[in-house]
Design a protein that fits this description.
The chain is mostly helical and about 500 residues long. The protein is built from 21 helices and two strands. The protein has one domain (about 1-495). Helix 4 runs parallel beside helix 17 (about 350-375).
Length: about 500
């Protein structure tokens, strides 16, 4: 085995592979930082360039783009509250308030450190725990998926701000919007126009909900804003700040690695899951959503931690963990490699090369992030009068370029107005987004579970895994009710 590893290491340690991974990381970071330019787009556009490349370098290029774009989404999320990727939406909750406080550089550094650690630990989990985690994912059926998603939905309580009721209203609206389009059995719901039959894409909803309201506020509430963005201030993350967030980083890395190994979950759900868990266990829970470094650490370590883990079901089972690994599945097939159990027997040398390359790309991500950070921090120095139309054009161009759809642009603009209305009514946007992302998965797995059991709801508690999630849901709900009761009691006491 040692000889195989050394042989793979020498094969990876070439100038060509190094340049390929560097280009992939840099390209991913830049694309991810541009609103609307998703990692999926970057990987898809790069796929034709891999046709004439060797198998392992081509896969390393796509993996590097994936990793870079996942981190890159946090850059625009922190600086201008415009998540470059869906998985960075959670980062914007605390990153943008920190930027407004003059701590944008500090937030970017914490995002980078958390991303690199989460990514590296995820790669380690891929190397050592691929088979066990793949077997676990294999035993998770629709009932287990449903209970897991319901448990993930309990994070709404943690991001509802001062009013749990308004947070629940926001989540209900998100679940309602998630039902638009074709259901599991071919029926259309709320399909008022043909473009709505396929449902609403997450990108225009995400960008519209988080980015456009900020632009509208700059225009409508111009008197309350200065002409220039808040300065970045100190960029150094102190030892105490890092150590205070280390538990959340490690916990987020584990959450990302586990959820990423389950097909269909993806980095976005992992980020919100980790964020909610960090808030529940943090001493600074009240500061989450107002500018808390620990919140950034939790979300970024989880969404990057999911990157390597999504390769587990792909390599071990031939099942893509998300959309991007679905594209990579096509890349494997093009290169004559068939992902699955036999891959570890017939192409072990290539597997070792891939593992080593992914570890190297984690290190490259750190340096690329440091350099790119200095470049993108200039965004904070752009006058708001120039930044507003520039960001609007980037949003519209990015959304249109994904599917060349004017309908998506219309959704973007409408969700911008909805987001601004929610701001005026003090309704938090985060529960809406969480519910919108989780809603389709909750519905799909519930209907599949009931179809398997012929309508018997007892199937939702038919395995030890479902019972574990049920206990966790009850526990979280109990703690939430207790917290709301204590808050209500405290308010009455103050009056």
């Amino acid at each position: 085995m040692l000889n195989d590893v050394l042989s793979a290491l020498s094969a990876v340690a070439t100038l060509q592979n190094f340049l390929i991974m560097t280009a992939g990381i840099w390209g991913g970071v830049i694309v991810g930082a541009i609103p609307g330019m998703t990692g999926t787009m970057a990987v898809t556009l790069a796929l034709p360039f891999t046709f004439y490349m060797a198998p392992v370098p081509s896969i390393l290029l796509l993996v590097a783009l994936y990793k870079g774009s996942t981190y890159g989404g946090s850059v625009s999320a922190i600086l201008i509250k415009t998540p470059g990727t869906a998985s960075a939406a959670c980062t914007a909750l605390d990153g943008y308030p920190l930027a407004q406080q003059g701590k944008g550089g500090k937030a970017l550094n914490m995002a980078l450190y958390s991303s690199v650690i989460g990514d590296f630990l995820s790669n380690i989990s891929l190397i050592f725990f691929a088979a066990p985690l793949a077997l676990l994912a294999l035993h998770i059926g629709p009932p287990e998926f449903f209970m897991l998603m319901v448990f993930a939905l309990t994070t709404v309580a943690g991001v509802s701000g001062n009013s749990l009721l308004l947070g629940m209203v926001s989540a209900a609206l998100g679940l309602l919007l998630a039902t638009v389009g074709e259901d599991l059995y071919g029926s259309f719901r709320f399909a008022f126009v043909p473009d709505m039959q396929a449902g609403l894409s997450i990108a225009p909803v995400l960008i519209g909900l988080f980015a456009l309201p900020e632009l509208i506020k700059l225009v409508v509430l111009r008197a309350a804003n200065k002409d220039e963005a808040a300065p970045l201030g100190a960029q150094h993350v102190t030892r105490d700040e890092f150590m205070g967030s280390l538990r959340s980083i490690l916990k987020g890395s584990v959450i990302g690695s586990i959820l990423g190994a389950i097909p269909g979950i993806g980095p976005s759900s992992a980020a919100f899951f980790s964020y909610g868990e960090a808030q529940r266990s943090s001493k600074n829970a009240a500061n989450f959503g107002k500018g808390e470094l620990e919140g950034i650490a939790a979300s970024e370590s989880a969404n990057n931690g999911a990157c390597g883990a999504t390769m587990i079901p792909l390599l071990a089972l031939g099942v893509p963990g998300d959309v991007i690994t679905g594209v990579m599945l096509g890349a494997f097939m093009i290169q004559g490699l068939t992902p699955g159990p036999l891959l570890f027997q017939t192409n072990m040398h290539e597997i070792y090369m891939l593992f080593i390359g992914m570890l190297v790309s984690s290190v490259l991500l750190f340096f690329a992030g440091k350099v790119t950070m200095r470049m993108f921090t200039k965004v904070a120095l752009i006058p708001q009068t120039l930044l507003t139309p520039l960001v609007l054009l980037l949003c519209i161009f990015g959304i249109y370029s994904i599917a060349s759809s004017t309908f998506d642009v219309a959704v973007l603009l409408v969700m911008g107005l909805v987001g601004f209305g929610m701001f005026l009514l003090n309704i938090p946007a985060a529960p809406f987004l969480i519910a919108f992302i989780l809603g389709p998965m909750i519905e799909e797995n519930l209907r599949r579970a009931l179809a398997i059991s012929r309508g018997d709801p007892a199937v939702l508690l038919s395995s030890p895994i479902t019972w574990v999630f049920a206990v966790l849901i009850i526990l979280v709900l109990g703690l939430t009710v207790r917290r709301e009761f204590l808050k209500s009691k405290e308010r009455r006491f103050q009056q």
